[in-house]
UniProtKB/TrEMBL annotation:
Record-annotated Carrier domain positions: 1-77
Name of the protein in question: Acyl carrier protein
InterPro entries on file: ACP-like_sf (IPR036736), PP-bd_ACP (IPR009081)
Amino acid sequence: MVTVSMVCDLMAKKLGAKAAQHTLDADTEFETVGLSSLQIADIVYAIEDEVGIEFDPGQAANVKTVGDLVELARATKLGSVEA
């Protein structure tokens, strides 16, 4: 299960020392903390690998906040269970 904490931990790893400058929570926007599109993609791929899901690329590209990504993961997981 993907949690806000899991996504925030992945973001903190990508941000390195800059993570301390930000409050990371469900409302955190990926672009406002200085993550590049490649770093955001790495986070998405890490979640896919860890949880065993595959996001719809169009939906994943529209994710703006940590909460959005957690919700997309939850919906994707539920969809894969029903399939």
